[in-house]
User: Which sequence fits this backbone?
């Protein structure tokens, strides 16, 4: 019995010691975790770590957005590229490039291609108005080529000329003499000068000197309008031929005018203006084609204007 009691007491003592040891171990573990947590928080507050993480994020994003395989790192200089470089050099310097010059041209092309690829991989082409404008111009050229049709027929050009006759009308021609009178001249003075001119007096001795030409020979009406004013050009068309008449007013004053020759404006025949009509016809077709192509593309997009005080363009 005594032996049994001794063994039992020893077991109880061992269990007590074990519990105490476990308690101490757990306490040490908790203290270690608390200390480790404080160290981690301290490290996370370090700016160096922040910059390191940002750099890693940028590197990963670049690798995902612009992966580079063997094809992406391969630049092929075709014979067509070399021929274009030679033509450009010859057009500029009026001679073909020497061997060393050609090597330099090719190296410059390779350099441009490398820098372009690296820049686009970094997104440097985004939101650049110059690049956007250039890309738009290329797209317009493609749209024009796709919509190109056969050359216009004579019937097409004749119809266009008739529809836009005002663009090709040749202005009327006119020849005249004029006597300048100041705006302060009375009706009696004007009439006296007119009677003297009719009787054969020298027009140069009548009226007052001015910078305006006393005689205009075979001039377009628009030129007379430029020199004397549009109202003057309109009025002299109505005057009788070879008679002193007036006064005709201009921006300078009053004039006595004798029209010696007059040719009305006329729409020329197609044969005389075919090149000009064809050029205008082609330009109008090109503009219409670009407009139609833009409308088609625009219909595929939803336009959202988030800025305030901007007129809506959704219905355009």
Assistant:
């Amino acid at each position: 019995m005594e032996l049994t009691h001794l063994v039992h007491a020893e077991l109880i003592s061992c269990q007590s010691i074990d519990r105490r040891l476990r308690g101490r171990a757990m306490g040490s573990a908790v203290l270690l975790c608390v200390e480790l947590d404080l160290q981690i928080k301290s490290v996370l507050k370090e700016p160096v770590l922040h910059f390191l993480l940002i750099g890693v994020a940028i590197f990963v994003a670049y690798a995902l957005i612009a992966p580079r395989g063997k094809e992406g790192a391969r630049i092929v200089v075709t014979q067509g590229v070399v021929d274009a470089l030679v033509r450009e050099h010859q057009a500029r310097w009026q001679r073909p490039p020497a061997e060393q010059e050609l090597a330099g041209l090719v190296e410059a092309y390779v350099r441009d291609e490398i820098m372009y690829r690296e820049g686009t991989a970094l997104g440097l082409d985004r939101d650049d108005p110059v690049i956007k404008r250039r890309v738009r111009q290329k797209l317009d050229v493609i749209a024009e080529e796709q919509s190109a049709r056969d050359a216009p027929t004579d019937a097409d050009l004749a119809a266009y000329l008739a529809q836009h006759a005002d663009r090709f009308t040749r202005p009327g021609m006119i020849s005249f003499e004029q006597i300048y009178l100041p705006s302060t001249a009375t009706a009696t003075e004007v009439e006296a000068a007119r009677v003297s001119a009719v009787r054969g007096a020298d027009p140069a001795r009548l009226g007052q000197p001015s910078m305006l030409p006393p005689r205009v020979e075979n001039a377009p009406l628009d030129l007379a309008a430029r020199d004397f004013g549009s109202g003057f050009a309109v009025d002299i068309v109505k005057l009788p031929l070879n008679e002193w008449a007036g006064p005709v007013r201009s921006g300078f004053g009053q004039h006595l005018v004798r029209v010696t020759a007059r040719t009305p404006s006329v729409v020329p025949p197609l044969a005389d203006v075919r090149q000009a009509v064809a050029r205008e016809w082609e330009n109008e077709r090109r503009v219409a084609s670009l407009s139609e192509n833009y409308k088609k593309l625009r219909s595929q997009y939803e336009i959202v204007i988030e800025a305030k005080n901007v007129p809506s363009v959704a219905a355009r």
